[in-house]
Amino acid sequence: xxxxxxxxxxxxxxKPMVIGTNNVFEVGCYSQAMKVGxxxxxxxxAFVGRNVILTSGCIIGACCNVNTYEVIxxxxxxxxxxxxxxxxxxxxxxxxxxxxxxxxxxxxxxxxKKTTKATSTPVKS
Length: 125
Hints:
With about 120 residues, the protein is α/β, with parallel strands linked by helices. The chain has a single domain, classed as UDP N-Acetylglucosamine Acyltransferase, domain 1 (3 Solenoid). It is built from one helix and twelve strands, in the order ββββββββββββα. The longest helix has 14 residues, at about 95-110. The protein starts with 17 loop residues before the first strand and ends in a 16-residue tail after the last helix. The relative contact order is 0.13. It comes from Mesembrinibis cayennensis. Part of the dynactin complex that activates the molecular motor dynein for ultra-processive transport along microtubules. It is found in: Chromosome, Centromere, Kinetochore; Cytoplasm, Cytoskeleton. This is Dynactin subunit 6.
């Protein structure tokens, strides 16, 4: 069966996606991972498949494709055109400075439009 069509006789329970704290999902990344730990960075145009479990402190580099049945060990960096892997000796610093900066700057550029109430004409009988 295609992924989004299931027979009516089967009752499929939706599975929750669990995402930890201080993760950064950059513009254009695509993550289907059902479990994501803490302090991970998924860079632009990176793809993380449904069967991947990201632990904590991982960095998935730009344009990297991780679509295997595996648990990515802590502090793993996946990088380059060939999606090479290495393990960092130290835990990566959380992206709190970047997130604080964005929380201060983004409201300056996000302009809300005021809604206008439409006047309705009364129905004459």
